[in-house]
Amino acid sequence: MSGETVFSRPQLKRARYAVAAVFCVHGAVTGSFATRIPWIADHTGVGAGQLGLALAFPAIGASVAMPLAGAVSHRLGARTALRGLLVLWTLSLTLPALAPNMVALCAALFVYGATAGMSDVAMNALGVEVENRLDKSIMSGLHGMWSAGALIGSAAGTLAAHLGSDARLHHALAAAALTVLGLVACQGVIDLRSAPDAEAPPRFALPPRSALVIGAIGFCAVFAEGASLDWSAVYLRDVLDTSPGLAAASTTAFALTMAVARLAGDRVIDRFGPVRTVRVGGVAATAGGLLVVSATGPVLALAGFALIGLGVAVVVPLAFAAAGRSGPNPSQAIAGVATITYTSGLIAPSAIGAVADATSLVVSFGVVTALAFGLVVGAGVLRGAGRVPDGERGGASPSPAAAVKD
Q1: Distance between CA atoms of residues 7 and 197, nearest Å
Q2: What are the distances in angstroms from CA 291 to CA 165, 346, 369?
Q3: What are 312-356's pLDDT values in tens digits?
Q4: Is the distance from CB of 35 to CB of 154 less than 8 angstroms?
Q5: Residue ranges of the alpha helices (H) in 163-208?
Q6: Longest Cα pair distance anywhere in the chain, in angstroms?
Q7: Which residue among 62, 141, 244, 353 is least packed, with the fewest CB closer than 10 Å?
Q8: CA atoms within 13 A on the CB side of 264
Q9: What is the pTM of this model?
Q10: φ and ψ of 390, to 5 deg
Q11: Of the candidates 141, 112, 126, 262, which has an alpha carbon nearest to the alpha carbon of residue 185?
């Protein structure tokens, strides 16, 4: 993208709210889909094992397609690319419920994941650009808006499921509404275009080395997130013998602490810097993991899962922000980090199950605790992820805000 375009501060503030709305729409699609998975499984006649295999295809599709996002943005410009990719993503919500069998479901979920991944890269790249130009952290809040959108979408899906509605109708109506909202939101984002003499990025490129290092931190956070979301209720039920209702509360506690922490995270990041924030978060997540594995009752385990959610909440937004500043092609670097984090989210649930089968769930969450401690050790790679306080700045380059007209 061209770094020469200058936007006024009111334009950037409007762009911030517009990108936040895009994140919310993106999350609402995910929430809408997740609540109707049981209906889709019944409709296609797949069993638990087949469903598990089918649900791997969104991550496969995303991993394959995300490296293409940079070339699309270069060719079409940031706003047009985001608009087109977001529409493809919202409309892809209709596909899984229409699948008549296992093969069609896998194909539908591959497309669903591919459009999710490419729009994810495009919106994060724009978010990093707005953050750079405002010279204040906004990425945590943007991802908090994604979580809020997912909660809204899941609430609407839960209501639709409770009313016994056909998921094909539910998803068609949701896709139509979210497509309109997404198009309206995209009107407000800044329109960045590559310089005429800029070299086009390759249509498919491996992530740069810097993205691999940053992605390792994201891997630790997303592994802990995926393990906690998918296995916390099972842990309380099987290890601590709690009631189904109380076991389900662990997932809610985790999701809510993550959403709240992300929405509030930008102020903390601006105050203390990304490195200190992630180190403290890593300490909190490690302490949470230790509470989980040592808990003899549900209260300590619930507190532990809440601490894990609090500790890992801002890591992925900061990883995207750091990737966007790590080289000349932000979309390529963000795509690399996103591919690593998507892969982590894909393997975490099955890895936890495999370790539990070989040993126990307590040992599985010992692994989660060790990865959480990795955030404490590796937080330094996120030094460029936000507005750095004077104590961390060292020889930092001049503020991006210098290019903004008030």
Answers
A1: 21
A2: 41, 25, 10
A3: 999 999 998 888 877 667 777 887 888 888 788 778 877 888 888
A4: yes
A5: 167-186
A6: 64
A7: 244
A8: 8
A9: 0.78
A10: -55, -35
A11: 126
Checking if the pLDDT of 388 tops 70, the result is no
Question: Which range is most confident: 102-111, 339-348, 392-401?
Answer: 102-111
Buried b (16+ CB within 10 A) or exposed e, 5-44: eebeeebbebbbebbbbbbbbbbbbbbbbebbeebbbebb
Structure-token pair, residue 402? 């210098």
370 backbone dihedrals φ, ψ, rounded to 5° = -65, -40
Whether the pLDDT of residue 44 is over 90: the answer is: yes
> Bridge partners of 8?
405
Q: Give the whole-angstrom CA distance, residue 313 versus residue 306.
A: 11
CA gyration radius for the chain? 21
As a whole number of angstroms, the distance between CA 245 and CA 47 comes to 25
How far CA 88 is from CA of 64, 67, 91, 109, 338, in Å, comes to 16, 17, 5, 13, 19
Q: How far apart are the first and last CA of the chain?
A: 22
What's the token pair of residue 209? 């080395």
Amino acid present at 245: G
Which has the closest alpha carbon to 331: 192, 163, 226?
192
Residues recorded for the chain: 406
pLDDT at 404: 34
Q: Return the pLDDT at 304.
A: 94
Residues 6+ apart with CB under 8 A from 37: 51, 55
Distance CA 227, CA 81 (A): 33
Residue 288 sits at φ, ψ, to 5 deg, of -65, -45
Residues 161, 180: Cα–Cα separation, whole Å: 23
In whole angstroms, what is the distance from residue 48 CA to residue 64 CA? 25
Q: What's the rounded Cα separation, in Å, for the pair 300 and 206? A: 43
Q: Which residue has the tokens 């109380």?
A: 246
CA distance 288 to 247: 17
Token pair, residue 256, equals 């809510």
Q: What are phi and psi of 297, to 5 degrees?
A: -150, 170
pLDDT per residue as tens digits for the range 252-308:
778 788 888 998 999 999 899 999 999 999 999 999 999 999 999 999 999 999 999
CA-CA distance, 326 to 212, in Å (whole number)?
11
